[in-house]
């Protein structure tokens, strides 16, 4: 059986699954569990992405200190692969950890530095949690790269050990990540799943968080965009190809209640640009890596969601020294109605209040 969906229904399914309807989740853990992952990109033109993503779901009750407590004290949330995840999902990730590192170059480098590996673990056991700079570089073979990781042996070793699950990220401070032995961060009484069962449950969880996804998508290093064969087969009117539909998403979307949201550029709803174009007809590119003269929407423009449509981009920057949220421009994909203009303005004001800033500019 193939489910046939209108574009409107498909959009509502996607928005509802990402917890961006009027019915907000109750708390941080419920939000992260529903989303399955929250991006940790630290760029703070507005706010670090994890904080922005959680605020856009929870609203004013969300405070970054609450997330830190859940990660560093309660251990209800953990960091792996550049995302925050619910600790209840750790059994699903453990089989993936055992496959790391994936590249032959990294495996060969790890084998050549077995003494260094043991020294890093011993140092963490004695003194952890530690920053990379706190651990001496005693590598037998230096890491070679054309990028910024060249010769950064301690960081590279910690990254590999964290990916393998031998080491875990204990927390973060102003200087970055703190690493410790995994046994001090992760629970030890974990359910053991086969790689096949874990992969299927990960795909089901991912589809539940997206509502609607392609069976196969662009390859990603730690968190795929595709869902394989889980869910139901679906087609979307006016969009080529098949989709996979979360079985419970259609009924939930029928009760969809809209609201307006200013999203992080790293939000999962906009992360897959092909899906964004297919379902929402929305063109978006993060332009902070472009020269200023070539930017259309701004350094860190925020996608503006109104109901089940993306209606524009907000070009703004948090100037914390001056105590203001500077609004440079509001780019309208189509002329705003009075209702949309009022809703967007209210959301900008809410964002500024949450940041503790005053709005200036457009």
Describe the protein's architecture and organization.
This protein is of the alpha+beta class. 38% of the residues lie in helices and 19% in strands. It has 14 helices and 14 strands. The strands form 4 sheets. Strands 10-11-12-13-14 form a 5-stranded mixed β-sheet, with helices on one face. A 4-stranded mixed β-sheet has the order 1-8-9-7. Strands 2-4-3 form a 3-stranded antiparallel β-sheet. The longest helix is centred in the last third of the chain and has 18 residues. It is globular and about 65 Å long. The chain starts with a strand and ends with a strand. The relative contact order is 0.15. The mean pLDDT is 95.
Brief summary of the model shown:
With 362 residues, the chain is α+β, with helices and mostly antiparallel strands.
State the main characteristics.
362 residues; alpha+beta; five-stranded mixed beta sheet; four-stranded mixed beta sheet; 14 helices
Proportion in β-strands: 15-25%
Radius of gyration: 22 Å
**Multimerization status:** single chain
Helix content: 25-40%
- Can you tell me the residue ranges where pLDDT is under 50 for at least 5 consecutive residues? none
Q: What gap, in angstroms, lies between the N and C termini?
A: 50 Å
Number of helices, where a helix is a run of at least 4 consecutive DSSP H or I residues: 14
Q: Average pLDDT across residues?
A: 95
Major sheet characteristics: 5 strands, mixed
SSE order, one letter for each helix or strand: EHHEHHEEHHHHEEHHEEEHEHHEEEHE
User: Which descriptor suits the 3D outline?
Assistant: globular
Structural class given helices, strands, pairing?
A: alpha+beta
Strand order of the largest sheet: 10-11-12-13-14
Secondary structure tally: strands: 14
């Amino acid at each position: 059986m193939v489910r046939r969906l209108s574009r409107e229904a498909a959009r509502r399914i996607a928005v509802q699954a990402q917890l961006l309807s009027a019915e907000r989740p109750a708390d941080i853990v419920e939000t992260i569990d529903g989303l399955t992952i929250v991006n940790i990109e630290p760029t703070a033109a507005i706010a670090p992405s994890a904080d922005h993503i959680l605020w856009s779901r929870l609203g004013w009750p969300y405070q970054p200190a609450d997330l830190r407590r859940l990660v560093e004290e309660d251990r209800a949330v953990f960091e792996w692969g550049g995302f925050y995840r619910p600790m209840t999902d750790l059994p699903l990730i453990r089989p993936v950890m055992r496959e790391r590192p994936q590249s032959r170059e990294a495996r060969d480098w790890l084998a050549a530095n077995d003494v260094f590996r043991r020294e890093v673990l011993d140092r963490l056991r004695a003194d952890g949690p530690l920053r990379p700079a706190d651990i001496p570089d005693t590598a037998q073979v230096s890491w070679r790269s054309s990028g910024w990781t060249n010769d950064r042996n301690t960081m590279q070793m910690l990254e590999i050990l964290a990916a393998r699950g031998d080491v875990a990220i204990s927390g973060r401070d102003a200087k970055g990540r703190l690493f410790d032995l995994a046994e001090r961060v992760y629970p030890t009484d974990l359910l053991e799943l086969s790689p096949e069962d874990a992969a299927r449950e990960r795909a089901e969880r991912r589809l539940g968080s997206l509502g609607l996804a392609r069976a196969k998508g662009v390859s990603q290093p730690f968190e795929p965009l595709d869902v394989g064969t889980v869910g139901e087969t679906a087609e979307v009117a006016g969009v080529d190809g098949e989709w996979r539909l979360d079985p419970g998403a259609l009924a939930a979307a029928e009760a969809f209640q809209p609201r307006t949201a200013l999203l992080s550029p790293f939000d999962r709803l906009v992360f897959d640009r092909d899906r964004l174009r297919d379902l929402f007809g929305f063109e978006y590119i993060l332009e902070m890596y472009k020269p200023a003269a070539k930017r259309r929407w701004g350094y860190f423009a925020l996608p503006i969601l109104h109901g089940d449509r993306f209606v524009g981009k907000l070009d703004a920057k948090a100037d914390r020294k001056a105590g203001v949220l500077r609004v440079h421009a509001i780019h309208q994909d189509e002329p705003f109605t009075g209702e949309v203009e009022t809703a967007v303005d209210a959301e900008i004001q809410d964002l500024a209040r949450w940041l503790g800033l005053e709005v200036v500019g457009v």
